[in-house]
Amino acid sequence: MQEHFHLNTPLLESVSMSKLLGTTVYMKMENSQPSGSFKIRGIGHLCQQLTGRSRGIVCASGGNAGMAAAYVARKMGVPATIVVPSSSPQLVVRRLQDEGATVRIVGKVWDDANAEALRLSESEGLTFVPPFDHPFLWEGHASMIAEVSASLGSGVKPGAILLSVGGGGLLCGVIQGMKDVGWMDVPIIAMETVGADCLNAAIKAGKVVTLDGITSEAKCLGAKTVCQRAFEYSRSGEPKIISELVTDQQALTAIDTFLDEERVLVEMACGAALAAVYSGLIRRLQEQGRLPTPLRPLLVIVCGGSSINMGELSALKEKLHI
Ligand code: PLV
């Protein structure tokens, strides 16, 4: 079996973001992974650990976990069934089918699709692949921080790490990687959109809560409940997690700016993190003393995503009046 499915992605310096923030901004380009997002790291690792002689895998996904699972299944020669909610754009369904997966559309949001995936794993004897809540996923995602640390060179630490939160798997994986390289004193800025804000809601409530629904267009951030481990990290204070929200408009504007400046198209889930730079949020956190001034280099996890193309971008702009 091949060693792993993910690639060592480029760590690029963004001239335009560095100019905006007055510090060097590094972008970890997870959009360039096979299957289009960081998800391949965790899902590749998890499938290697769990799948063995599996009859097939089943994964419920907003899109990208499914893309990664379908890719890995194809490489491993096992069938993949991906369950997506009806909120996933048609282009995701097509891309999943192009990967060779059987696609089922069930329910309105990811949580509905997940219930169906669990049912299918039992009734059909398929290996269940969770998109964000599993230690093997976090172990796999952690490799991204090991790569960044190796690229930056020994002794160089970022001043903060900026990422998006859906169900919290990326957050847990990044923290795992930070533990491994001794970066636990580096704060994380954990971004969600209003209406897909399960981590922020849990922090406010002081306990894990389940959102009534997902009203954001960032469907790949649309888990109604954050994973327990992510919430525990947010309480532990190490690393410090700054949980912030942006609007869909801000996330969409960020995608547009990123396309212009870096010539890379990413989806709304990723736009949430980018918006922290472009909307002035990082600067505001510095003014409030929640991030240091001057700030050592900022590391942005460009998590990527396949739920976007030029048509989808135009449709989102129309819908959100931008
Ligand atoms: N997307 C998951 C969960 O959706 C999925 O099924 O694909 N950035 C991108 C591009 C993503 O696709 C996701 C998660 C995230 C960020 C957030 O990662 P998480 O869920 O590990 O916090 C409901």
Please give the structural blueprint.
Blueprint: E1 11-13, H1 15-21, E2 25-29, H2 39-50, E3 57-60, H3 64-76, E4 80-84, H4 90-98, E5 102-105, H5 110-124, E6 127-129, H6 135-152, E7 160-164, H7 169-181, E8 188-193, H8 198-205, H9 228-236, E9 241-246, H10 248-262, H11 268-278, H12 281-287, E10 298-302, H13 310-319
Parallel strand pairs: 2-10, 3-4, 3-6, 4-5, 7-8, 7-10, 8-9
Antiparallel strand pairs: 1-2
Helix pairs in contact: 2-3, 2-6, 6-7, 10-11
Organism: Nothobranchius furzeri
GO molecular function, one term: threonine deaminase activity
Catalytic activity: L-serine = pyruvate + NH4(+)
* Alpha carbon gap, first and last residue: 47 Å
Annotated CATH topology of the largest domain: Rossmann fold
The unique ligands bound to this protein are: ligand PLV
Widest sheet: strand ordering: 1-2-10-7-8-9
Biggest β-sheet description? 6 strands, mixed
- The tally of beta strands, per DSSP, is 10
Helix content: 40-55%
CATH architecture of the largest domain: 3-Layer(aba) Sandwich
Strand content: 5-15%
Structural class of the helices, strands and pairings?
A: alpha/beta
SSE run: EHEHEHEHEHEHEHEHHEHHHEH
Q: In total, how many domains does the architecture comprise?
A: 2
Shape: globular
The first-level CATH class name of the largest domain: Alpha Beta
